Amino acid sequence: MQLKGKILIIDDNPDIGETLSDILKGEGYLCSIAYNRAQAIEILSRGNYHQAIVDVMLPDGDGVQLVGEIQSLRSGIRCLSMTAYPRQGLQESALGTGARDFLTKPLDIPYLIKLLEEYSGIPVLIVEDDLVFAESLKEYLAARGYRAYIARDW
To answer: Which residues pair with 52 in a beta bridge?
Structure first.
């Protein structure tokens, strides 16, 4: 199975984190789990992740603010926020800090997978002035699970 990307799951509930990880591993993702804000920052500082699923209520900090911190640390990460306790204004706050979508628990797993698939694949930048060659390489990489982008020069 092709690797579709690396996902960091941030949730203080071990059952949710482990279940999500198992499901997403079955879909071709490499997953890590952080159970609080501090652990998430530590994991992110040591590795490259393509996506993060962030619970907005964490024991050591606000998950909405964490999305903003993640964007500062690793601007390319696509964050999805989730909560079991939606309240007025929470979705707008999460989206305002950089979350790409806002989900409520219990999660609609097929919808979550659809969202992740939209951004799946390991990103690659092809810097090549020969556009025919670059397009050919992009197609080759796309067939192997990469999201390739072309730049004709620096």
So the answer is: 8, 79
Q: What is the dihedral of CA 59, 60, 62, 66, to 10 degrees?
A: -120
Which residue is associated with the tokens 């500062």? 72
pLDDT per position as a tens digit, 71-106: 888 877 899 999 999 888 889 999 999 899 999 999
Whether the CB-CB separation of 13 and 84 falls below 8 Å is answered with no
What is each CA distance from 10 to 6, 101, 108, 154, in whole angstroms? Answer: 13, 15, 17, 36
Residue 52 in 3-state DSSP? strand
Residue 62: which of 15, 12, 19, 14 has the closest Cα? 12
Write down the pTM of the prediction.
Answer: 0.81
